[in-house]
């Protein structure tokens, strides 16, 4: 059912564009745009036209010059007018930003004369391209060799050539074969190690890959890794000393000189203190010696 709906959406889009452009006069200008881009559609018409309308496909005009207040444009569309040179040719510019998938279709500008006849019928067919949808993957039952297995991935694919890529250990894994388009579904098979984390995504062929955002499908393997680029968490041991001063801060010259001065001042003070203590010890020693001698003399005289 999914494949049939993809094909039917393609066919219905083509039918609407062709139907809307077929039943009008004038040449058809075909342009294409990518979803999300900016696109400008240009329509020329005689400046002496009494009425100008602009519509998309078979729908009612969203612009009518006879009733400009009834302008019903979506937020992503804007109109601009200017005269082209001096040849009585006016130009209407339809700016679309961002381009949406619903903007696809046949845009028709019709210019009328005073009698109601059509003077100009400018037609622009806009095709909107968009990349494949998100990839979804599943393992095939067959084990190729050791830890290697086949991972089959699919994604919606409509207008542009796409592919599916997978990464393991920051390295793109090799595909088994080229991607295949089967009725609107993109199929791609890769060699993947079953025990290791794998991350897959769908994108346009040749589109640069942001590996950290390639996570349409994730396989954790035998680990708990669920993100292609996990954020590193820095932890500290409990009880570690902290300081408000940066360890890499460089002291100024004045601070260095002050520290040296304080250091030598402390040294001198310590030396003087030791010297005074030494003198006191010597004096006390001398007094003790003299006291002992006097005591000996007194003892001899008494005998």
From TrEMBL:
Membrane-spanning segments: 271-292
Keywords: Membrane, Signal, Transmembrane, Transmembrane helix
Species of origin: Strongylocentrotus purpuratus (Purple sea urchin)
Name this protein carries in UniProt: Uncharacterized protein
Signal peptide: 1-26
């Amino acid at each position: 059912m999914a494949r049939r709906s993809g094909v039917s959406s393609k066919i219905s889009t083509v039918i609407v564009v062709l139907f809307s452009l077929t039943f009008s006069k004038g040449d058809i200008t075909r342009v294409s745009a990518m979803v999300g881009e900016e696109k400008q559609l240009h329509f020329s018409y005689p400046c002496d036209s009494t009425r100008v309308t602009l519509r998309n496909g078979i729908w009612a005009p969203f612009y009518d010059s006879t009733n400009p207040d009834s302008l019903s444009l979506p937020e992503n569309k804007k109109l601009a007018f200017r005269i082209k040179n001096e040849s009585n040719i006016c130009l209407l510019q339809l700016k679309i930003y961002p381009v949406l998938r619903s903007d696809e279709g046949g845009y028709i500008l019709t210019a009328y004369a005073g009698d109601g006849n059509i003077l100009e019928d400018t037609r622009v067919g806009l095709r909107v391209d968009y990349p494949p949808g998100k990839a979804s993957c599943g393992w095939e039952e067959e084990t190729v060799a050791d830890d290697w297995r086949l991972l089959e991935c699919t994604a919606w694919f409509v207008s542009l050539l796409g592919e599916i890529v997978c990464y393991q250990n920051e390295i793109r894994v090799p595909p088994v074969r080229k991607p295949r388009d089967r009725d609107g579904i993109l199929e791609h098979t890769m060699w993947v190690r079953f025990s290791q984390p794998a991350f897959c995504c769908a994108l346009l062929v040749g589109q640069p890959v942001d590996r950290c955002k390639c996570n349409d499908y994730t396989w954790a393997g035998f680990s708990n890794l669920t993100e292609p680029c996990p954020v590193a968490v820095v932890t500290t041991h409990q009880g570690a000393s902290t300081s408000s001063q940066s360890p890499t801060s460089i002291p100024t010259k004045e601070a260095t000189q002050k520290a040296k001065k304080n250091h030598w001042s402390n040294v001198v003070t310590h030396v003087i203190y030791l010297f005074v203590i030494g003198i006191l010890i010597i004096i006390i020693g001398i007094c003790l010696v003299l006291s002992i001698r006097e005591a000996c003399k007194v003892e001899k005289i008494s005998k």
